[in-house]
Amino acid sequence: MGYDRTIAVFSPDGRLFQVEYAKEAVKRGTTCVGIVFKDGILLATIKPTTPLMLPEATEKIFQIDDHVGAVAAGLLADARSLISLSRIRAQIHRITYDEPMDVFSVARVIGDRMQISTLYAGLRPYGVSFLVGGVDKNGVHLIEADPSGMLYAWLAYAIGRGAALVNKIFKQKWKEGMSEKEALKLALEAIEKSEKEKGTLEVAIIKRGEKFRRVSEEEIKKV
User: Which fold has domain 17-222?
Assistant: First the structure.
């Protein structure tokens, strides 16, 4: 139990149990997906709806800057704190260098902060994972940040409780150069198959030369 109760002690087989528990918290979150398509990135998730609660009261897809956003699975309070940090750093970079921060650097801000919380006694890891997506001068990027602070780059990926099924669907159906409409159809199909609970769909798109945009309910219904 000594290895189980502190973040600063490895178990004899080289594991940090608190980090593994944080990853389990992510698996309890609703399914979140990110898909790279031709000249853009799509982020999508489903927000559970509860009677008398306003859907807009909870946010799972966050705009970090005009060219980059993120979707979170896990503890949304942790997500909100990390997103606030990344927004501040992105604006400091824009003011200092008169150009937008590249997507990998934005993801690294989040990953570095998450990694710090795995080092010191008295802290707990952040119980949230992110898919950070955006477009910069180097191209279109989709980056996963997990509770250990590790960053992974993907072309299409899912996190949350339906991730295993959705990632199988992506391996079969994702193709290079797909259109925005094809990406939206694939995202909605994947979420529909992986999520049994009803909720409000939330979708955001960032395209080259355009700003972060949330997809309206009317557009989703047409698809």
Answer: Glutamine Phosphoribosylpyrophosphate, subunit 1, domain 1 (3.60.20)
